[in-house]
């Protein structure tokens, strides 16, 4: 079986306009011809009644009824004539186009007046500056959203007054409350550490993803993700809203330029150590929170929780 294909060719706008105009004119002529036929038939009908003499004895206001009917019929014909011929001739497409042009010209004048008022109230240079400021503000918001999606990298550590972290891969103090705080903050997150720090754990810390940084390409760590640069570690943890860098000293130094936040427990004592936390540059970091804890029967040294945000 053969199927007819639809003509998908585009019709020229001018041709379409000519076609529509011709179509309207044909419809007008058809309506006029139809009414003309009805008028002729009606006229013949009344003429026949007049010749046969029917209804002469019936009068309305002293006139024979067929004269009244002819007058009414003539009145309707005149109305139709005015509607079809006069309106089409004097108020046709050209008249409509002229009216549209006048209306459009008037609207353009009103728009120009409004534009002048707007230019006086809001000079073009100021609008451009506001537009640029809005675009820049939007871009900054987008960048902030992108940064949030990448996660806020936080370094968490406990260090003495001399930035001591520990000696021989072990801490030189015992602060139970600090251990509890470390657990509460890091649970459910990625924790990034060096190989030596990882090997001090008796077992994997529960409910945390361990990421171990080492230069040894053959190093294996059961239950942990092994990478070879701090950048690789952060890439692995990019799905986390707040990955934590937990040490040791060399990893803290590498992570300082990547971190957005530092959660530091400052132990108020100086210690002999072989690993140290890097100095915090006050130009780059702003202290936003501190919480002091005095020594007691469970804590040999006083300490303060310090929270820094990148300035």
**Shape estimate:** rod-shaped
The whole-number mean of residue pLDDT values reads 80
Report the β-strand fraction as a percent range. Answer: 15-25%
Radius of gyration: 47 Å
Q: In terms of topology, how is this protein built?
A:
Layout: H1 13-52, E1 59-60, E2 63-64, H2 65-90, H3 93-121, H4 124-150, E3 154-160, E4 164-166, H5 176-186, E5 190-194, H6 195-199, E6 209-213, E7 225-227, H7 230-236, E8 244-247, H8 249-255, E9 261-267, E10 275-276, E11 285-293, E12 303-310
Parallel strand pairs: 3-8, 3-9, 5-6, 5-8, 6-7
Antiparallel strand pairs: 1-2, 4-10, 9-12, 11-12
Helix pairs in contact: 1-2
Please give a structural write-up:
- This protein has helices at about 15-50, 65-90, 95-120, 125-150, 175-185, 195-200, 230-235, 250-255, and strands at about 60, 65, 155-160, 165, 190-195, 210-215, 225, 245, 260-265, 275, 285-295, 305-310.
- The radius of gyration is 47 Å and the shape is rod-shaped.
- It starts with 12 loop residues before the first helix and ends with a strand.
- It contains 8 helices and 12 strands.
- Strands 7-6-5-8-3-9-12-11 form an 8-stranded mixed β-sheet, with helices on both faces. It has a two-stranded antiparallel sheet with strand order 1-2.
- It is of the alpha/beta class and about 300 residues long.
- About 15% of the residues are buried.
Jot down its keywords.
8 helices, rod-shaped, 8-stranded mixed β-sheet, two-stranded antiparallel sheet, disordered N terminus, single chain, 311 residues, 49% helix, alpha/beta
